Amino acid sequence: MEREELPLDRQLRQEILFARERVYRFGQPTPLERLHLPGAPSVEIWVKREDLCPVKAYKWRGACNRMATLTPGEKMRGVVTASAGNHAQGIALAARTLGVQARIYMPRSTPRVKQAAVLQHGGDFVRIELSGDSYDEAVQAARADEAENGAVYVHAYDDLLVMAGQGTLADEVVLSGHGPFDAAFLQIGGGGMVAGVSSWLKTYWPEIEIVGVEGIGQASMKAALEAGKPVSLDHVDLFCDGSAVRKAGDLPFQICQHTIDRMETVTNGEVSRAIRTLWETLRCISEPSGALGLAAVMKNRAMLEGKKVLVVISGANIDFLQLGRIAQSQGSSSQTSRTLRVEIPEQPGTMLNLLNSCFSEIDITDFQYGKTDEAIASPIFTITADNSSILDAVSDQLNANGFKWEELTSAVDVDFRAIPLRSDQLRHPAFLRLDFYERKGALHDFLGQRISGNANLCYFNYRQSGERIGRALIGLDFPSSYERDALLMSIPSHGDGYRVCEPVDDETRRRLVGA
Asked: Domain ACT-like, which positions (predicted)?
């Protein structure tokens, strides 16, 4: 008897049931863990830890489910796919387990940690082909391979069996006993996970609110829902590389237009803050796309009071260098921050006066200054506090003391630490490498105790590192070489709140001043 054609949503639910019998040949269920969000004790957050699965990302479910359905003839032809990294690892895991050859096309910019993981999981059964600078270009190359060689193409998200495999993570949530949930915040790339998970959650908990979450610079599903069909974005932000998809999948879109209740977009800074929160609460290191859901929860914490919400940590395959950049970014801070440029007279003692009058009780996490004018100095401070009202008080203090200032938060030159310094404005400079102990007042104490007389601050480069000490390179200018040499000979190697690592040698000084 010929099988009756089912509507797509019914087919998907049925295939999720079938996927139960397949995916656990390749991996085990992942835990659901409670997260206590600082500042929001009344929001009950449960985290699905897909970062703890075999490939450190949920993508193994869909890839393995699809690969498990290959016929003997298809296995002989081999598999080809395109992936930004996590789907590729799932294909590699399944290829090795099933003894199937797979060619995997990845963008040239794919983090090395993901490339290495693909080879580790697939061994001799996989071959990586780096092609193009984006996921879409890798897809084109993989499709050309499919047409030329007859291999079976396994799509990363626009495939019913792949979507069904991803839906098994929702099945584990339902069976966990921690539900029902009031809302689920689900990140979206091409839409495979949100389609499978939202369909299954809505089946058992019809009242659950499904919130689709995308990065503000890669909101392809939001664009599709607004247009009534998948559309291509002109530009895709790659910070959340695992969800950087130019166009939502056709099949996921057909599901999502019925299951998603609303969409949220989050900034890279909000994602960075969520990554930090995961580390500080669960000791979980998430890749950027893996933290999208929590970023949206944190953004909407006031609206979620008294509710039970679900988020998915969808992956932990982050390049170590990117992790360092995120940790150093202002967006990752749990505190509020502002960056200000303040004009002061270019005279000895004015910097100390500024600190005394306006910054005495504030945490300075970044300080950039280079002398460029004989009369006016324009130091740049990044200041942080637990709430914005404390930072607003600094603005009031600056105004009350007659300082001219401007807001430079997120300014490009500040982010890239472009610190100008004019050598023709200097007479007899000296540069020191200092370590400041990370406490309020350490900088103030150094300037007040050690920079006296005719010494004038001409350069300062300091950024808080998260360690117990912060490293700084400072420049002092003197009217005479005698005064300069006297300070260098007399300054103690250790003082209250600081230690002098070393004076900068003449060659480094010449590079700094361009002389």
From this structure: 338-410, 430-505
Name the pTM for this structure.
0.80
HSE of 514 in the Cβ direction (CA atoms, 13 Å)?
8
Map tokens 């004076």 to a residue.
Answer: 503
The angle at the Cα of 156, spanning 151 to 157, to the nearest 5 degrees, equals 125
Same-domain pairing of 361 and 213: no
Token look-up 């001799």 returns 124
pLDDT in tens, 303-342: 999 999 999 999 988 888 788 777 766 555 556 778 999 9
**Rounded CA gap, 118 and 121, in Å?**
5
| Interacting residues of 155 by C-beta distance below 8 A, sequence separation 6+ | 81, 162, 249
The domain spanning residue 444 has which CATH number? 3.40.1020.10
Distance CA 410, CA 39 (A): 25
* Residues 214-247: b if buried by 16+ CB within 10 A, e if exposed: bbbbbbbbbbbbeeeebeebeebbbbbbbbbbbb
pLDDT digits (tens, 9 = 90+) for 114-163: 899 999 999 999 999 999 888 889 999 999 999 999 999 999 999 999 99
Are 479 and 362 contained in the same domain? yes
- Closest C-alpha among 59, 49, 175, 173 to residue 118: 59
Whether 1 is covered by a domain: the verdict is no
- Residue 24 gets which letter from DSSP? G
Look at strands 102-106 and 79-82 and give their pairing. parallel
Task: Report residue 484: phi and psi, to 5°.
Answer: -60, -50
The whole domain housing 264 covers 8-53+161-331
User: Which residues are the active-site residues?
Assistant: 59, 314
- Strand intervals (E) in 84-208: 102-106, 126-130, 152-153, 183-187
Which phi and psi (to 5°) does residue 255 adopt? -75, -45
